[in-house]
């Protein structure tokens, strides 16, 4: 029976995998944490704004926006998980218990899996609505809810499995270098799953593109609106390129190093770039808000309304405070002007 090392320290597993565990803050650690905190705060604020917009605007109370809201919730969770990582990285990693390390890793894995799975769910629902020529408001709510539940079940499964079984605490020869407590097979499966999601998204959006282009072309032949046809086709191409391009740019580098580490590539220097590629994957949670929500005209109007309301409340609160203090200090001097008519408060 293989020996298990449940009572060992984090340093024991890092030494076993050959990953350096620093005892002081290096310049690289400071740069990564500074960038990570900045990205995390932006992710939190942006996705909170998306959730507030969907909750406050009744036009968004439709099934397809449930998925966009779920994407924002998953990305918000990713921002919290990455923020937790930034406060428990560098020299602080050595002070983590095994449970604390698995909690740190599990939060990241669960949130990022939920985000990627929701991207696929949005693509599938867009495909169904386009092929069935169905309005987003007519999509079955029950199916959307089941999709959301399925997303989180899969995310929680992948996030919790490493702490309970898919680790290398009882098989040190299977430990990965990037995540020294996890099995290399887990990293390989996670990378291949993300790659499969991307290929499915490519297939779905490609089919949507050719289907819509064919329909618009047929309509253009009857209505003779070739400029509008070109405009619609170009807009569709731009949307597909932005969606798939954002996914490729943010996720491909991380998937490649995960797969290389999972396959046990000894000559690959994955540790030199892992932190930056993880930061790039986290940045996808910020990009998602821009790609899936900010390109919606109604969503942008809702954003402006919410931000204007916040600014107005702040300015109103400050002006009220200033006015009340002015009245307290000089109320006997401004009751009446010389002509005997009362003054009018310009703030009303």
From TrEMBL:
It comes from Loxodonta africana. Its main location: membrane. One of its GO terms (molecular function) is PDZ domain binding. It is a multi-pass membrane protein. The keyword Cell membrane applies. It is found in: Cell membrane. This is Lysophosphatidic acid receptor 2. One of its GO terms (cellular component) is presynaptic active zone membrane. GO terms for biological process: positive regulation of MAPK cascade; positive regulation of Rho protein signal transduction. Residues 46-292 form the G-protein coupled receptors family 1 profile domain. The keyword Glycoprotein applies. PANTHER family: G-PROTEIN COUPLED RECEPTOR. Keywords: Cell membrane, G-protein coupled receptor, Glycoprotein, Membrane, Receptor, Transducer, Transmembrane, Transmembrane helix. The lineage of its organism: Eukaryota, Metazoa, Chordata, Craniata, Vertebrata. InterPro entries: GPCR_Rhodpsn, GPCR_Rhodpsn_7TM, LPA_rcpt, LPA_rcpt_EDG4. The chain crosses the membrane at residues 30-52, 64-87, 107-124, 144-167, 187-212, 233-256. The gene is LPAR2. Belongs to the G-protein coupled receptor 1 family.
